[in-house]
Write a structure and sequence with these properties.
Helix content: 25-40%
Structural class: alpha/beta
Oligomer: single chain
Strand content: 5-15%
CATH architecture of the largest domain: 3-Layer(aba) Sandwich
CATH topology of the largest domain: Rossmann fold
Largest sheet: 7 strands, parallel
Number of domains: 2
CATH superfamily of the largest domain: NAD(P)-binding Rossmann-like Domain
């Protein structure tokens, strides 16, 4: 018999999906230890939907029978605390669950700048009829830094729009035969890809290896007509250098969904820059995202019960 502890808000609507679990599964839900104190010693599965590190540490330390830890979110930087890293229990996450919405946002950013949608909206608001020239994204090059699930979702859409796609990832050999990219190279060659791209998409997670992966030197390699799009993590990009380049008009623009500090502080230049399309980290915040994440957990639970390999097992050392 399995005992599952869910560290999440008990009012979370997607918890209704837990009715699909077998009747003999014991469940406790809450964001306070009192919600699961009587079951924690028997818990063999821990599901996280919180960044409260003290709460996570308490739960892991109090569950000697733990066999599996799962995060309902993809980002793990606040969950990979020593207790989780040192636990013998494998860690899985929701990597790829939100990829489709983020892939759509990437194409939205491309079209926003190619069609100068800000200008259209401003002219409409002002009651002006001033035709201007727009661009096509067909034939343009998209370089994707961090060619994982989000990168692939972006590449499929970009290719369908007639774009040329180049991927950059830690293990480029894993993309051999991928029909959506012209080629895939290692992080060591990221600067060359950035220099070649009209749209530079950042889709890498935040790890010790990827922090500042796109720094001042890489940003300086961008074409003046290029656009940077970040749907990965804010710390992957040198944000201060990016802001300087945008203010100086050194690059065409940026579409940003993630930031080094969230919420973005009041007065930050990204709020006022007209060559920035700013999303308050909600590009994947669809009405169904938690339902989708819970369904992925339930699918993985079936693997667990059947003794099959779990999907999305995280390398705790690498952080993804």
């Amino acid at each position: 018999m399995d005992t599952i502890i869910f560290l999440c808000n008990p009012a979370m609507k997607s918890l209704v999906l837990l009715d699909e679990l077998p009747d003999n599964v014991r469940i406790a839900v809450g964001l306070e230890p009192a919600a699961y104190t009587n079951l924690i010693a028997d818990a063999n599965i821990l599901v996280l939907n919180t960044d409260d590190q003290d709460l996570i540490a308490y739960a892991v330390n109090s569950a000697p029978r733990l066999q599996w830890i799962h995060s309902l979110m993809a980002g793990l930087e606040k969950k990979l605390i020593p207790e989780v890293r040192n636990s013998h229990a494998p860690l899985t996450n929701a990597r790829g669950v939100y990829k489709e919405s983020l892939g759509e946002f990437v194409i939205t950013c491309c079209l926003y700048f190619a069609k100068d949608l800000r200008r259209m909206v401003e002219q409409q608001r002002a009651g002006l009829w001033h035709p201007f020239t727009v661009e096509e994204i067909a034939g343009k090059t998209m370089g994707i830094i961090g060619y994982g699930e989000i990168g692939k979702a972006s590449a499929r859409r970009a290719q369908a729009m007639g774009m040329r796609v180049i991927g950059v990832r830690r293990h480029p050999e894993r993309s051999e035969g991928d029909p959506h990219v012209e080629r895939t190279v290692s992080f060591a060659h990221r600067k060359d890809v950035i220099a070649e791209s009209d749209y530079v998409v950042i889709a890498a997670p935040n790890t010790s290896e990827t922090r500042n992966l796109v720094g001042r030197e890489e940003l300086a390699a961008m074409k003046e007509t290029a656009v940077l799009i970040n749907v990965g993590r804010g710390l992957v990009v040198d944000e201060a250098a990016l802001a300087e380049m945008l203010e100086a008009g050194r690059i065409r623009g940026a579409g940003l969904d993630v930031f080094q500090e969230e919420p973005l502080p009041a007065g930050h230049p990204f709020y006022r820059l007209e060559n920035v399309l700013l999303s308050p980290h909600c590009a994947d915040n669809t009405p169904e995202w938690l339902h989708d994440s819970m369904r992925f957990f339930l699918k993985n639970y079936q693997h667990f019960r059947a003794g099959k390999p779990l999907e999305n097992v995280v390398n705790k050392e690498l952080g993804y």
